[in-house]
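Lab meeting minutes (informal)
Scribe: AK
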Amino acid sequence: MAQSVAPRSVVPIREVVIPDGGDVRYAITMTVNGVPFEVGLDTGSTGLRLLPRAVRNARVEAGEQPERYSYTSGVLLQGGRTMARVRLGAAAGIVAIHAIERASCVQAKPDCPASRIPLQAYGLMGSGRPRAGFPAIVGIRLQEGRIPNPMAALGVRRWIVHLPQRGQGDGLLVLNPDARDTAGFVSIRPGAGSSGTVGSCLMALAPPPARICGLTLLDTGAPGLTVRGAKVPSNWAPQLPARIAFVPEAAGSAPALTFRSGDRAHGAHAAFMPDRHLTRPEISAGTLPFYAFDVLFDGDHQTIAVRPNRNAGPAVRPAAGAMQQR
């Protein structure tokens, strides 16, 4: 049961570059049982999950209910479900967490990042690099789960993710934003039957015309575009201009962003994976949309809205004239 609404507060979001591979991740500070941790921020998953070293440091009780959770990378986390006192900014409460005991791989991906190093050197979101990544991860996707998004238990009804531009300092996570914070956001249509996704179309801006439309996940935990259920478009090539256009909730111009395909620094490298079992494509847009837009997540109404990121640069930017303010 959710507690009373927490006061508005702002938490810095820090850019972290994983050594060797160069992948970028984003982190916030959360306190568990009075102990602060750097926690990976993941809008593509649910739940607060702690590696054994974080469980020990925070003196978290062992979970009596078995818990397992896997990611698209193939990493499988196993342990137990338990409760702990958690603070994020000015929000605090008793939260269900995953006390991890083992990190391995799902059967279909035996070479996942967790297979490369022992657990004591493994970090969440660390791409399998020794001593990289974080001792904990917090998934804040709008989706149910046995280990849920902790925002409701903390009294947070809405939150804004404002990612920093690459190499330009901290971003912001705004908890329970006020009317000034939420001015200018445009709601985008939720994906039918898939919690935490929205409708969008991906297209290369080169002839011949072609676009891929489907359920789309905005995922700060996964740099790179992944398109399942579609072949590589004939007009898709590195360094060509491309666009993602979201389906607006109300009539009006569609919020859209432009970028150059293959721009790894901004998560625009793409993988297309045909899948005959899917009735329509599924798009993981990764971090890319966050460089063009601030994203407002509404936990009460299970909706997502966007607004141009005021720091957007020329590499990834809102499409000219694509936003209708209201």
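Next up, CB showed the second protein from the same session:
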Amino acid sequence: MNTCQTLYFIAPYRVELREESLPVPKEGQVLLESVCSAISPGSEMLLYRGQFSSLKDCHDSVSSDLSYPTPYGYACVGRIVAVGPQVTQDLLGQLAFAFHAHSTHVLADLDELLFLPAGISPETACFLPNTETAINLVHDAAPLLGERAIVFGQGIVGLLTTALLTEFPLAALLAVDRYSLRREAAQALGVTASLDPAEPDFYEHALTFLDGIGADFSLEISGAAPALNDAIALTRFSGRVIIGSWYGTNNAILDLGGVFHRSRITLYPSQVSTIRPELSGCWNKARRFVLAWQVLQRIQPQRWITHRFPFERAAEAYHLLHESPETTIQILFTYE
């Protein structure tokens, strides 16, 4: 076979698989045949809906300068089927992770790949980017012994973040999501409570678990811009709100004239493409990936895969995410 297929976002609510020439690896390169890849229900759905903002960001090459038509995605696992000059043949057949758009084949420089450790399945490895993001969020939140915390959004990044926070000796940990499937998944992790923000008494209910004071820190990773107001409202005096969501063009009016103004609350943006400056002396991307593999082995996030779609049915997967997000947590494309 001399061709491959790559998924392109071509317009709002439209994707297509395009036939392309099968690339031949050059010096220092390898060719992977994809086994599975994970849809990002946050950033990919912004692109699917035409709600992405134009970025010129040297720190994030994956999401910079997006425009239609474009391939997109960053969680692909494949098996090496060809190697270029100066690359050892011993790599043939090995499994590797690539930050690459959804495609039946991936051409990559050898140093761009992350090889799967023993005991990590391809499906588990698809969660590597979101696990790295969850680690970054926890590093940015910097939890302290006995603090009270609340996590808004229990999609896959939210669940991974919540799972990590359950390992800390916190006084209280609340999970918030509007979908019951995700609230149940969070509750199974052992949180103090898993709440629906649409409930009429949501604020009062949440405060009962926060000793009537509020959270010492809140993480907003729901992707819903209005949730940032909820995070501010439930964060205590001198608390901190860590913002991990990319809202795209979905702007919201923030209520900064009430409790926020007098409460000395810190709003801290968290983005995985860089390391928090205060940690950069001892942490780098390589160390964070080592930790991410360990977290994957410990948490086993493949339990949150709700759907697997053959790659040729990709359009159905995005339609499902758009029309019925309440039925999904993580969707994978399969290629074998």
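CB comment: The two ends are 15 Å apart (CA to CA).
No objections, moving on.
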